[in-house]
Amino acid sequence: MNQEKLMHYQVDPWNYYMMRVRRRRMEEEDEMERVMRIVSESAVVIFSSSSCCMCHAMKSLFCGMGVNTMVHELDQDSKGKQMEKTLMRLLATNSTTLPVVFIGGKLVGSMDTLLAFHVNGSLVPLLKQAGALWL
Amino acid sequence: MASQRIGEIGSSESEPSSQHVPYGVLHGITTSTSSLMNQGSSFDFGELEEAIVLQGIKIRNDEGKASLFTSKPAATLEMFPSWPIRFQQTPRLGGSKSGGESTDSGSTELQFDTDSPISVKASSSDHQNRAFDQIQQQETATNDVLRTETSQNQSTAKSYQEKKKGASSTSEKTLDPKTLRRLAQNREAAKKSRLRKKAYVQQLETSRLRLANLEQDLQRARSQGLFMGCGGNTSPGAAIFDMEYARWVEEDERQLVEVRNGLQGALTDNELRVIVEGYLCHYDELFQLKGVAVHSDVFHLINGIWTSPAERPFLWIGGFRPSDLITMLMQQLEPLAEQQMVGICELRHSSHQAEDALTQGHEQLQHSIVHTIAGGPVVDGVQQMVAAMAKISSLEGFVRQGDNLRQQSLHQLCRILTVRQAARCFLIIGEYYGRLRALSSLWTSRPRETLITDDNSCQATTELQMLQPSHSHFSSF
Predict the structure, then answer these.
(1) Residue among B350, B361, B397 whose CB faces A60 most closely
(2) Residues of A in contact with B340 (CB under 8 A)
(3) Range from A105-114, B269-278, B447-456 carrying the lowest mean pLDDT
């Protein structure tokens, strides 16, 4: 397989490059689609890591509010790394950002944003709208 | 000045030279208000004018005539010869001059008698132009003008020359409008530059004071730094943060005074809002400071050595616990509207939930760090250390989130409350912490049975460290 690639590269480098770019774009789109598919499956979706303590804090927060969340442990997912990269791209940041939460299929952000929303009183209405909270 | 002159009138009546009398009267009146000049008084100055003019001409005529159109070495000499010719103009020069520059004239008018050309060199061309301008105004306004001391005329040689030239081309009373405008502009420019100079000097003074204060701070911090360097392993990041925090506390006290004055004084809501927002910015600065410090030394922030001893028991992840603060505020801000009460209760509730979540995460982190340091059955030194370092960076994340929660709570509080209530809030918080710091000072300097010497000479180095920063807080007690 690598030999083939090499020959292809030697014969027509520009075309090869364009092909690679296109493929990467497609992969990224696939990843994004995958993420979107996952987040639409549940009202509240948390992308986390089992060893990350801040993720634990976020889970506790929702738990304490009585909200059921779907947790996606990326360190236990085969494509976890790529998903993490996709999330980083979504949040427009270069540093690892777990946990990341989606409510009602829409991106909310990491712990920072979540706490800000909660304190200024906009989290509860958001949850109610997504059907994650009833009162 | 005025009374002095008027007194002079009475005393000098017997004097041979009659010029003192009109001199004093004129000056006395002009110093009190320049508007008198324009209003026209019942006093008949015509005769006075004549008297002065005649005297002037008599004394100076011989000397001055030759230098009628030359630029002056002695301004005095030039003025007088033209008196008979430009009779109405020169006195106005003097008159306006006295109105504007009473101090100048005051010093020189008595020397009217003497021959010495006491040109008031102090006055710059600005004065001349100003006087000139005033002359023209008065001329156009009214004919009833005071003819005053010629000594004032001494200083206006140049403008006088111009005036002569101008007057010679046209009639006595009309002047070039351009000249008028130019002189007015000169006057304005002079005024502006004087104001600017004053402002600059004031600025210099305040910066000088500030520099002195900063140097003092630096000295103090250096000595503290030395202390703490001996005391324990203080990183440079920690030392810097301590210094910055001390400065923040001083600024806090100043802002507190401002808020207190704002509440007691009859300030409008808008003005109070400015103060409240200033205080919010002040707190934002603190969180920014901590954000930098958390990266350089998270342990320093967590162990709370930078706070006063009495604050330390209540520390939660490197700072105050928002729900506790809100509870305290609710008790103090008693008369609250229904809506505000609901809002504050909700705020307290949500921040409580957030605190619980962060606490749980923090505890798990601590367990994990302990586990990592203790090591498992397979102890790999380097790997262990790397893992532990990673956990410490997670700890940084927790302190950041704690500060984030604190900052958001404060902002939300200000959104819920009215401006006056928010101001009272800040006042309450500031006073609360001030008392805590004062309590710490008292506690560290309390008399102990083992020590024979008086209170303030505690020997323990740690107490001295604490005493130094909190020494200033006695004043708030």
Answers:
(1) B361
(2) none
(3) B447-456
Query: DSSP labels for chain A?
Result: -HHHHHHHHHH-HHHHHHHHHHHHHHHHHHHHHHHHHHHTTSSEEEEE-TT-HHHHHHHHHHHHHT---EEEEGGGSTTHHHHHHHHHHHHT-SS----EEEETTEEEESHHHHHHHHHTT-HHHHHHHHTS---
Question: Whole-angstrom Cα distance, residue B384 to residue B380?
Answer: 6
Most confident of A32-41, B16-25, B125-134, B380-389: A32-41
Query: pLDDT band at B58, cuts 50/70/90?
Result: low
Distance CA B385, CA B116 (A): 94
Q: Could you tell me the two tokens for B323?
A: 């729900």
Token pair belonging to B253 = 């006290």
Q: Which residue of A has its CA nearest to B387?
A: A51
pLDDT tens profile B247-280 = 999 999 999 999 999 888 878 888 889 999 999 9
Name the residue among B368, B394, B409 with its Cβ closest to that of A119: B409
Question: How far does CA B328 lie from the centroid of its chain?
Answer: 35
Q: pTM to 2 decimals?
A: 0.58
The mean pLDDT value of chain B amounts to 72
Q: What is the pLDDT of residue B174?
A: 60
Nearest to A53 among B364, B404, B411 (CB): B364
Cβ within 8 Å of A, B 353-382: 353-354, 356-358, 360-362, 364-365, 368
Pull the structure tokens for residue B1: 């000045």
Do residues B99 and B34 lie in contact, with contact meaning Cβ atoms separated by under 8 Å? yes
Judged by a CB distance cut-off of 8 A, whether residue B301 touches chain A is no
The domain locations on chain A are 13-130
B91 to B20, B97, B154: CA distances (angstroms):
16, 9, 12
8-state DSSP, B378: S
Contact yes or no for A119 and B415 at CB 8 A: no
What's the length of chain A? 135
The CATH class given to the A13-130 domain equals: alpha beta
What is the complex's ipTM, to 2 decimals?
A: 0.86
B364 with A56: Cβ contact below 8 A: yes
CB proximity under 8 Å: A 35-94 to B: 51-58, 60-61, 64-65
Q: What phi and psi, each to the nearest 5 degrees, are found at residue B274?
A: -60, -45
Residue B126 pLDDT more than 60? no
pLDDT above 50 (res A44) = yes
Q: Do A56 and B354 touch (CB under 8 A)?
A: no
CB of B412 less than 8 A from some CB of A: yes
Q: Using the predicted structure, report yes or no on whether residue B469 has a pLDDT greater than 90.
A: no
Q: Which helix (H) or strand (E) holds B419?
A: helix B419-444
Give the gap in angstroms from C-alpha B311 to the nearest C-alpha of chain A: 24
Mutate to test the interface with B, among A53, A56, A127 (most CBs of B within 10 A): A53
The backbone torsions φ and ψ at residue A72, rounded to the nearest 5 degrees and listed phi first, read: -115, 105
